[in-house]
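BUG-463 | component: ligand-complex export | severity: low

The export step for 2-oxoadipic acid jobs runs without errors, but we want the raw record kept on the ticket for reference. Input record follows.
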Amino acid sequence: MVPTWRLRAAFARRLSDMYGTEVPAYTTLLDVAGQVNDEVLRRDADAERLGSIDRITAERHGAIRVGTPREMRRAAQIFAALGMHPVGFYDLRDASSSAVPVVSTAFRPVDAEELARNPFRVFTSLLTPADRRFFDADRQARLEAFLARRELFPPELIELARRAEREGGLPEEPAERFLGLAVAAFELSPEPVDRAWYAELERISAVAADIGGVSSTHVNHLTPRVLDIDRLYALMEERGIAMIDRIQGPPRWDGPEVLLRQTSFRALAEPRRFREPDGSLRTASLRVRFGEVEARGVALTRTGRALYDELVAETDRRLAEHPGATAQQVARGLWEARFPRDEGRLAADRLAFFTYHPVVDRPRDGRRPPTDRAALLADGWLTARPVVYEDFLPRSAAGIFQSNLTDEGTRDGTQTATPYDERWLAEAIERTVHDPFELYAAQQDSSLRAAHRALGLRPPADD
Ligand code: OOG
Ligand code: NI
């Protein structure tokens, strides 16, 4: 029997191998990421505090895009077989000034043990053809008819995925078959692209064309994790690879690493075959797939996240007033003034998630431990380990989409947005969409309860 987590690890590895043959610059990115991680391990004794180097070396996130609720449901079935569940709802339609007509979720493992075994996650976006700001009624109808005719995932793959989910894995032979079919479903198809249809959608949105203009889906990017993203950025530029102009997310600074920092290199021209309006076939190029890299920090609580969002908004305001300044400069100044300088403060102020561990051999001198969390930490009864942020940031995701579009696309601002929300998504895919804050909180609370038990204290009040 190949258990769920081994299927996930094997899928992530094979997808990475496949993508490396399709996009050679990805292999360069992996080399440089590996080099940076080695450097950090040598210079920093604490390099593994946000995950073991084995986890980090294997760690990737992928991005895929699908067209219909049915395709999303089927993708969810494949990911369920790999122990990856929908977490979070991201509405990118308004997070970007370019036309990005999608809503998204991330499929990933949800418990700490599974994440430690292999944290593979896939940011999965679903086209929103009903949104009148992007598609009029006629185009929506033609788009939906086009999408209804294609089959992204063969029935045998879905059958095997159902069985793997039900049985918690697959025997060796079907596992092999499942992995082969699953990886193939995300390969770039040699099928010719209908030029006129693709171009029509591309005028609205390059993302819409990438999803609805072709007959299959493909990995858009695979992203390795790196321990020093500023260093990686500099090394890639030294190699002559054009990076987008900034690192998304929190600024570089001396305080704690929080949430997620990401950057990418520009989409590369890839040869694709087109069927021209006169029926002839021609090879031309498309720029839709790019390379991205990320650094992860501690997960923030709702309060911590609100502070983060406020600093992002304030950075925008100040940049608008001082067009000469860079986002990094402005954000860093703000963070230095307003964000806690160390993890101890983040824990005491309940701004970030930690797991708490009892120091059972601490000399007691006949005293009982205090009950207050800040005092337990300050007096050495508890130690705190940061919980890694396993999710995405809508604003950064929109920035990643946008920075790789050469064209703004079009949007009719006089129309109102069709409301797609987390409930709609959950119903569409017939699965619970987990709330990331609740997952982190549950992990923190269970560690605190165990720590209190070990110290002989009453259970703690929830945050
Ligand atoms: C997804 C873009 C978002 C991220 O890491 O935030 C993303 C896409 O391009 O399909 O991958
Ligand atoms: Ni990404």
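Assignee comment: Attached the raw record above. The chain is about 45% helix and 15% strand.
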